[in-house]
Amino acid sequence: MAVTFSNLHTEAGLKSVNDHLSGKTYISGDQLTKDDIKVYGAILEQPSSDLYPNASKWYQAVSAKLASSFPGEAVGVRFGSQAAPAGAAPAKEAAKPAADDDDDDDIDLFGEETEEEKAAAESREAAKASAKKKESGKSSVLMDVKPWDDETDMKKLEEAVRSVQMDGLLWGASKLVPVGYGIKKMQIMLTIVDDLVSVDTLIEERLTEEPINEYVQSCDIVAFNKI
Fold this sequence. Notes:
Elements: E1 3-5, H1 11-20, H2 34-42, H3 53-65, E2 77-79, H4 91-94, H5 115-136, E3 138-147, H6 154-162, E4 169-180, E5 183-193, H7 199-207, E6 216-226
Parallel strand pairs: 1-2
Antiparallel strand pairs: 3-5, 3-6, 4-5
Helix pairs in contact: 1-3
């Protein structure tokens, strides 16, 4: 049975994931599946370990395993629609009881729709179509970011890398890995929308150009997986 999550960029959305993961390792069982990747891609950053301990632990586990294949069998995850623009939601929908939350997207075929209701329905359908298009063209990438030497401030290096913001680019978890002679490299996860972001362009035109190249010597793609 598919699991439904909504508005994962909000506290309520993160709480629903945290509650679902109580006593569980992954979204759909005890193995990593594409369900986990879909939810992972919809969460903007690692949840707080204080407020959402289950979700935070799960997020770290998925980040660590994204470079490998997905051994489990996905059961399916569907996302609730985004909220309609302010002022566009009809009073009829606002008055629905909490028990009807699962039917937010249903349309009454036997009643007459107002112009306001039609506009709200069209907005929801457009949002769902846009989200589906983006989900179908995502990739997860594991990247090595190498400093110039052992004197490079790795905290500032990470801040410089994460300062790069692009449509379709989401930075994930990172860690420092010893290379030798006191030098450490940073491994960082990122999720991209294939139609919007080219990893080669990201590296050549943003990460190894001024001012970021003050800290970054080079970047290498360790793993690249379609989602």
